[in-house]
Amino acid sequence: MSLQDIALMAHLMRRAGFGATYQEIHENVSDGYDHTVDHLLDPNVSDGIQQDMLRRYHPDHSGGLGTAGMAFYWLHRMVQTQTPLREKVALFWHHVFATGYGKLAQGRVLMDQVEMFRQHGFGSLKTLLIELSRDPSMIIWLDNQDNHKGAINENYGRELLELFSMGVGNYSEDDIKACAQAFTGWTVSNAKYMKMRADNDSLWPYGRLNLHFEFDEDDHDGSEMTFLNETGVFNGEEVVDIICRQPATANFISRHMYNFFVADEPPVPQWPYREPRDPEAIQILSDAYFESGYNIAEMLRVMFKSEFFKSENVRSEKVKSPAELVAGVLRLTGESRKLTPKLQGDANLLGVMGQQLLNPPSVEGWHTGTEWLDTGNLVERINYAASKFADVNKPGIKEMIGRLAADAGGVATPETLVQDCLDQMGAISLSKTSMDALLNQASKTGKSEIGTDERETDEDILGELLRLVAATPDFQRC
Amino acid sequence: MQLLQISNVVRRQNKLTTTRTATDFLVYDRTLGVAAMEFRGFYYPVDLAINKEGRIYGLNRSHEGDPRGVRICMFDYDSNYFGAFGSVGEEDGQFTWATSIAIDREGLVYVSDEYTDRISIFDSEGNYLRKWGEHGDMPGQIDGPASMAFDNDDNLLISDHRNNRIQKFTKDGRYVSSFGKEGEGDGEFNLPWGVTVSSSGDLYVVDWRNDRIQRFTSDGEFKSKYCESGSDEGQLNRPASVAVDKSGHMYVADMGNDRVQVFDPDGGFVMTLEGQATVSPWAQEFLDASPTEASARYESDLRVALNARTGGTYEKRSHIEHLFWAPISVKLDLEGKIYVTDRNRHRVQVYRRV
Question: Model's pTM, two decimal places?
Answer without folding.
Answer: 0.94
